[in-house]
Amino acid sequence: MSLYAVQKFLYQLNRTPDLQDRYRADRSGAVRGFDRADDLTDDEVAALVGPDVGYLFHLGVNGQILMHFAALHGIEWADYLQQMRDGIAAYGPVREGVYAMTGYQGVQAHSAELGHRTGSGGLADASEEGGA
Amino acid sequence: MPLVYAGVCSHAPGITSRADQADPEVRGAFVEALDGMRSDIEASGAEALVVVAAEHFANFFMDNMPAFAMGMSDHYDGPIEDPDWLQIPKFRAPGDRDLSHRLVTEVMQTVDVAYAEEWLFDHGIAVPLSFLTPRFDLPVVPVNVNCQGPPLTPLHRAWAFGEALRRAVDSVSERIALVGTGGISHWPATPDSGKINEPWDRDFLDRWCRNDRDTLLDYDDAQVYAEAGQGGFEIRTFLTVSAAAAGAEGTVRFYAPIPIFAVGCTVADYQLG
Closest approach of chain A CAs to the CA of B244, in angstroms? Predict the structure, then answer.
């Protein structure tokens, strides 16, 4: 796997209108034309073409990159968040990158852990606020 | 001319893209505080606005990631995000290449800053500008501190950069306003988006207002990640402004967690002497 190559394709896609047009017209062709395409595994290509937001998050794609990719596909915010959660449930914890630093155990477990650490009920939580 | 304004505010994309989903009363108070920041900047007579933001892979990637970068162009386009998604129309903000050149030259005397003659604004700058200079009529100098791609800019280097930025601002003839943008604790664009550690935020803002270097630098990334999320790495932009304020004390004009905006929304400023 190459998290670097996956993120670089998405970085270029997010900031390049011409590439967005080519991707909309022919997703596979746009990914194959990427200068680091040889570094991508078949699963990574499939996730970029799908798209499979959950798998990309599982791989470790930074949310600031993935958020734009989801918007490109017209995925609503709440659906975007749920697709990442579903990806963790289906494929397992984040493999690599920033979100793998301490592991990701799910929203509720993380909330409980933070509440315990801070000793406070002051944590605002997406699950209590209808998602964010 | 000495720095005429120094403050910080939030920049989360939800502030504009999901504006209608927040509690109207809380959002209204936040927008009122941002309006107050705009009024204060205008009253300062600022001739240019230096915006220290946490860029989000709009211009810089891990193929060549600078610890610090400054824009050096006569104009900047944005937003990089889909305008319908961000709810900010495409815009061209004025820059001032000559001013940037002089600022970069002075900063370089002590800090190795990269410069960029092209720079696309993402929500980190576009959201604050939509409130602070809604007519895009004030020249902007964009600044980035790497808060996204580890290894991140060390906090003490962000402080040194802020001091260098202050020396640079004081060396030019223009009246300069400085605004840092970012989140405090938040988990943006992740499954935890919407979580906000309010006690952590309030403790940080207390340190920020006291502007004590030692307590502001008394964080490490593992601790910040665990308690304030990856969005907490953006405290670097707030620290840069603290250093530039050179000991001035600050006031929080607004703070409230707004989970649908995915951040504790903040407006604060320093009382410059």
Answer: 28
- From CA B191, how far away is CA B211, in angstroms rounded? 33
Q: What is the pLDDT, as a whole number, of residue B220?
A: 92
Distance CA B270, CA B246 (A): 10
- What is the CB neighbour count within 10 angstroms for residue A32? 13
* pTM of the full structure: 0.92
| Contact yes or no for B197 and A72 at CB 8 A | no
CATH topology of domain A3-126: Protocatechuate 4,5-dioxygenase; Chain A (1.10.700)
Q: Are strands B68-71 and B140-145 parallel, antiparallel or unpaired?
A: antiparallel
Whether the per-residue pLDDT at A118 is higher than 50: the answer is no
CA dist., res. A50 & res. B10, Å (int): 34
Flag whether residue A16 sits within 8 Å of chain B, measured between CB atoms: no
Cα B142 to chain centroid distance, Å, stands at 9
Give the number of domains in chain B.
1
Note the pLDDT of residue B2: 87
Cis peptide before B151 (omega within 30 of 0): yes
Question: Side chain identity at A123, as an amino acid letter?
Answer: L
How is residue A9 written in tokens? 């394709």
Range of the domain at B262: 5-270
Q: Which of A15, A68, A104, A110 is the best substitution to test chain B (most B C-beta atoms within 10 A)?
A: A68
Going by C-alpha positions, the residue among B182, B180, B181 that lies closest to residue B231 is: B182
Q: Whole-angstrom Cα distance, residue B82 to residue A58?
A: 25
Supply the ipTM of this predicted assembly: 0.91
CATH number at residue B176: 3.40.830.10
Q: How far apart are CA B7 and CA B9, in angstroms?
A: 7
Query: Which residue in the block uniquely carries the two structure tokens 């959002």?
Result: B27
Residues in A touching B57 (Cβ below 8 Å): 7, 11, 14, 62, 64-65
**Using CA atoms, how far apart are residues B77 and B126, in angstroms rounded to an integer?**
9
Judge whether A17 is closer than 8 Å to chain B, CB to CB: no
